[in-house]
Specification:
This protein is an alpha+beta fold and 133 residues long. It is built from 3 helices and 7 strands, in the order E-H-H-E-H-E-E-E-E-E.
Amino acid sequence: MALTLSELPSGHVFAPINIVLDSERCRAYRDATGDTLDVYDVQGAVPPLAVAAFALGALLESVGLPPGTLHANESLQAHAVVPEGATVECRARVAQRSQRGGWVVTVLESEMMLGGASAVFARATVLCPADAS
């Protein structure tokens, strides 16, 4: 069985993951989140938060999540427009891991690369119950 997120040490580097941002998937994300900004249609672009969400989802397919896990925080830096249909490479690592008040606090840093350059950088904080690790 795969390790759970709460068992990964600080400094753990995930294998790079390629994520295809096809228009159907991007439209489904925008519909699910109620994002009605037409700027994405005009530019043929993917919302930066969608890029980060797809990357986090792909990363979490490689590790288990203990019951009771919470996504506590997300910060995002958009460096470039990501067009629909693009493939981005996600490079991620466990930036921090600590245990406080019965929780394992894991901070994931992910950089989504487009054509070899940084397009989106995300930092997510995930809380897992300590007794589940």
